[in-house]
Amino acid sequence: MSLTVFFIFLALAIVIMAISIGFILRQLKRNKERAQRIQEGEARMQEERQKRIDSIRVLLKTVGSEELNWIETSIRIKNLLDQLGVDLSAHDDISAFYIVEEKTQHIPTHDQWKSLPITARAKFLKEMDGYEEEYKPHLLRAKEALAEYSFH
């Protein structure tokens, strides 16, 4: 084998190694960027989770006031718990929110509520007042239990 052929193979090997190193470096950079995006996504998810937990805490503090009744609170809390992926429907006390939400699912909300005749609204309001009265002790226990519940 001549010296020229040897240098050609050596140059070819160096080019192949350079291309391989470039490919490896590019893959490492992509992996680092991917890991950073995953970490940012997890941080966003944790932030969103904490916002939902904080929303539940605010609802628990304001429920029963002029601003927020037990029916609306039950619906909101049940939806927030669903978004968190937490099912507390079997919890003896906290289940009150699930029960009240389930019993009021048929009642129109938002724009549908506004378009209801006054007599229908009055009927639904009476029904909601009945549920609030019937479940008030259970809802109060649910409020205390959920306030003490650890979501972490």
Molecular structure report:
There is one protein chain. The chain is mainly α and 152 residues long. It is built from five helices and no strands. It has helices at 3-62, 70-84, 95-103, 110-114, 118-148. The longest helix has 60 residues, at 3-62. The model has no long low-confidence stretch (mean pLDDT 93).
Quick rundown:
The chain is mostly helical. It has helices at 3-62, 70-84, 95-103, 110-114, 118-148. The longest helix is centred in the N-terminal third of the chain and has 60 residues, at 3-62.
Keywords:
single chain, mainly alpha
Major pleated sheet: none
Rounded to an integer, what's the Rg over CA atoms?
30 Å
Shape estimate: rod-shaped
Q: Could you tell me the mean pLDDT?
A: 93
The percent range for strand residues is: under 5%
The H-and-E topology, N to C, reads as: HHHHH
Number of helical regions: 5
* Category by helix and strand content: mainly alpha
- Low-pLDDT parts are none
Binned, the helix content reads over 70%
